[in-house]
User: What shape does this take?
Amino acid sequence: MAVEWLYFALLSSLLISGVNIIDKILISDYRIPPLVYVLVISATSLMPLVILPFFTLTALPFGVLLFTIVIGFVRIYYTLPYFKALSVEEVSRVIPLLQLTPVFVLILSSLLLRETLNPQEYVAFGLLVLGGTLFAVRLGKGIRLSLTLYLMILSSFLLAVYSVALKYLFSTQDFYTVFIWVQIAGFIAFFQLLSFRPLRGSLVTTYKTTSRKIGVILVAEQAVAYISVFAYSYAIAHGPITLISSVGATQPLFVLLFATVLSYRFPRVLREELTRMDLALKGLGLIAILSGTYLIQVLGASVI
Assistant: This one.
């Protein structure tokens, strides 16, 4: 079973890395507003319901159902600061900051799932934070931290809340029932977001000015994204949340590789700062993230 959940976690990381690249291109080059992007995610949340005929759902207690719907909302809301960060920063700097999520996962797990923390795990925390910070450092007139860091701290925290809550739900309820209700909640969030007039206006304007080709790309991208969401959820249901969260540290590697290749191959489509200093900082950040992840993987074997 350990190998199975690991494969699903890696598949999720690989697929979502490709989605991250497309996100950046559509937001930066095709001017899709971040909030409209969130609306698209919400509107396409019912895509996973295509698997519904193949499974039998079970009834959830009212309190559990309400909690599941709230978590479905969190899944949508954590993307808000993420897309805002993508609109102002390079994708290879944004995605590594999601690797702060394991820090929050371990903290929340220790508080809510009764997991214990030890000094070695705090070392892993420090390495993950250091790695994320190195990816966020900008060199100009001295060294400064971009706004992206703060946006991604919020996004990472919400993703951690979502992940730990899913682990709890999957451990007490039927997997497919919880998964489907989380997606339904995401669709409900679409109508909640539409209640804000500026969002409705932005959505209508984007629809009128965006070509059908971009619309098809958006839908296809979301289909891939939901395969990734399913793989991530399946991994959570069948493996330790601590290790699954840390496997996500492979995502910056995939993104950096994709972004580097595309920057050289199609510089007009995706532009990345690829000076020697930039690559050195990203390389050091990646080493720190992978080192922290390795410690979590080794020390987390007895967790959960």
